[in-house]
Amino acid sequence: MQVVGAPSGNCEALRCRFHGWTYDLQGKFLSAPPPVAPKDGPSSAHDLPSLAMSNVAGLVLFTLGQPAALPELGRVAKAYGGTLATDIACNWKVCVEHLLAEHAPSPDFIWAWPLLTVRRAGPLSIVEQVVPHTFLRTRLFTHVFGGPAAAYEQAAATIKHVCEHLQADRAAGSPAEEVGMVAAFHTRLAEAYARDAGTT
Q1: Are 36 and 25 in contact (CB under 8 A)?
Q2: Count: domains in the chain
Q3: Do 100 and 128 meet the contact criterion of CB atoms below 8 Å apart?
Q4: CATH code, 94
């Protein structure tokens, strides 16, 4: 269960919204409401696992597996302007396909496999983070640097609209166009599924 839902800011503790388990900022289990508290009481067995973490261009990145090579995000504008959270009624792969469809790797567009893109839009640097929630629900966090996040609200709404239409097309049997970065995404996805066939 997700413990932190806000894309930025500070907190004094981490609390699961489903069962109410609470942890300190190092992930140590602190407490839980009596109906769902562990029967054996507080113990290190209930602590959150440690994750490999790094800070790149002001973004905190982590991995659930072995430490991976850090993505090359290029130069991100220093002034953080805010984050937009957009809920989209589509599969996360459809959202990634849309973000990649019109682009080729360049200094103005970077794709960090599998769920992060960085692009320049005039004075803005836009970091788009795709977060799968369910099979047909995705949340897109749009982190804006170099200007106010509000300046990007219409573009985020357009992404939502297009992705939901693409999802309807996929449900009707229309496949994604296998060109450019979308083809590269599908290749890497197939490789990941083949490699992890026993666990997916």
Answers
A1: no
A2: 1
A3: no
A4: 3.30.310
